[in-house]
Amino acid sequence: MEQIKNSTFVGNSIKMKRFLGILICAFAFNSCDDGNLTLETINFEDVQTQSCSTNDIIYKLKEKEALLLEIPKTSFKNEPTVPGNPTIFDIDNSTYRVVYRFYNGTVAADNICNTIPPALPNVNDQWTAASGKIQIITTTITEAGPIAGSTKITGYNHNIAFNNITFAKTNGTQVYETFPFGDYITPSTPLPFGFDKVVEQCPTSKQIYNYVSSEALTIDKIDPTLIVNTETPLNTPRTGLIGSINNKLTYRLYSNGVLTPDYFCATSVPVLPSISEEWNAVNGVSGVSGIIEVTTIKSGTTAYKHTIVIKNATLIKGNSSFKLGDVYIYGDLLTN
C-alpha cells in the first residue's frame, strides 16, 4: 500500500513539473511576442550588391527575398573616409529608406527597378525601417600601373552598415544594433598620364612642366643646383627631394579648354582651361622616397640635355593616393 502511495506521489510530481514547464514556456512565448521583438532574422551578407540605373535604389536579392536601400547617389563620394569617422545618414523613410521584402516567387531586378514592375511575384511580407542610421566607410580600389611600383585608382568601395535599425513589421518590430548591408562599388576613371618625355621651363619663374592637351605635371621652385649646364659624372646624378614649396611636384587634370605653354609662363594663371583635379606629391625622404634625380649630358656644341627622373613618389588628393612608380622618367629638358 505504501508503495502504491509513493508511486502515485511520484507520478503526480512528474505531471506537475510537466505542467509548470508548459506554463513557463507559454509565458515566455507570450512575453517574446508582445509586439516589440521577435526572433526572426534576415541576412544578406554574402549576397552581391546591385543598383538600379533609373533610380536611387541599391539592393540585394536572395531567391524570394529582397533588401532595398534607397539613397541618393550623391551620398557616395569618391573620397576615402577618415579611419574612425565614417559617413552617417539618418534613415528618414523619405530620402533614405531601408525595406525588406519577402515574395511568393523568385524575385528579379525587374521587380525592383522597373517603373511598372511585373505582376508576379507578389510581395507576401514587408518590413520597413522606421529609424536607425546608415554608416558608410569608403576606401580606394587600386591596381598595379604600367610602371613597376606604380598604382592607379580604379574605383571606390563603400562598405554599408545599419546601426540601431528598427524594422516595423505587421506583427511588431525587429531591432538590430548592427546590421551589415555589404559593399557597394563606384567606378573611377584612372588618370590618363599621356605625357611625352619633352620637358619645358618657364624663363622667369623657372617652373618645369610637362603637358598634353588636358593634363600637366609640374615641378615648382626647382632647386637651381639640379639644373646646371655641366655634365654629371657617370652614374652620379644630381639629387633632390620633393617638398611642399621647393621642388613641389603637382599633377593637374583640366577641362573646358586646351593647355598651351602660355598657361604655364603667364604672369597670372589663365581662367581657362579650368582645373578639375589636383594631386600633390608627398614630401620626400632621403634615400627612401620622393627623390628627384637629374643626369646632364651635352647635346650638340652648346646645348645640354637634363634627364629628370622621379623615384618612389606618392601623389595625394584629399584622402586618396597613388604611386608614380619606382622609377618614373619625367622627361628631358634642353638648356643652353
Structural key phrases:
disordered N terminus, 7-stranded mixed barrel, 17 strands, 336 residues, single chain, mainly beta, 3 helices
Portion in strands: over 45%
Main pleated-sheet profile: 8 strands, antiparallel
Alpha-beta content class? mainly beta
User: Judging from the principal axes of the Cα atoms, what is the shape?
Assistant: elongated
Radius of gyration: 33 Å
- Helical content (DSSP H or I, runs of 4+): 10-25%
Query: What is the β-strand count?
Result: 17
Q: Number of DSSP helices?
A: 3
Q: Name the average pLDDT.
A: 89
Cα distance spanning the termini:
128 Å
The low-confidence runs, each spanning 5 or more residues with pLDDT under 50, are 1-39
Query: Oligomerization state of this entry?
Result: single chain
List the helices and strands and how they pair.
Elements: H1 2-32, E1 50-51, E2 57-62, E3 65-70, E4 87-90, E5 97-103, H2 110-113, E6 123-144, E7 151-169, E8 172-187, E9 198-201, E10 208-211, E11 215-220, E12 238-241, E13 248-255, H3 261-265, E14 274-281, E15 291-299, E16 303-317, E17 320-335
Parallel strand pairs: 9-17
Antiparallel strand pairs: 1-2, 2-3, 3-5, 4-6, 5-6, 6-7, 7-8, 9-10, 10-11, 11-13, 12-15, 13-14, 14-16, 15-16, 16-17
